[in-house]
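Hey, resending since the last one bounced:
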Amino acid sequence: PQTLSTFQQPIQPSVNLLQGIPDPKSIESQKDAFAKDLEKQFQEKAAAIKAETARQQKRFSDEAQIQAKLAGAMNFQAPQFMKQQSDAQVQAQIKAQNFALEQQMAAQLNWLEGARNARKNELDQQAAAMTLDYQQRKAQEDALKKQYEIQKQYFDAEKKLAAEFPQMPLGMTI
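The structure tokens again:
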């Protein structure tokens, strides 16, 4: 005859949804390491741009000074005011060239900073997405475990009741 107990033992979930997924602390640690490396690269490239600008400024200044000395030697009989005017022109050229180089350097640094910020934002978004994925998987895994625990408690309670009361054929009443 059929009996009252028709429940089967629940199967414990064997799936680890977090396997291979870094936890939020690891994600943050990795993000910080990448950000630190990114900042180091930025500082190195910015220093290289500044050093190259300084080299170009010095080279132009040295060339202008040499040209001024050559012009002065060729015009040694020229009146003093013409020599001063020539020196002023050389200084104006040096200042103009330095200004142009500084503008070029500023543009390069701005571009570099923009690229750094874009990469940093990308890292932040990746870290946020990974953290969200972890949290969703963790919640799903916790829900599966809780569901198993509830089913197991129900099964155990049914089993206990079945042991306390003798099996009765269906259709019989107490």
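Residues 80-164 form the longest helix (85 residues).

Sorry for the duplicate.
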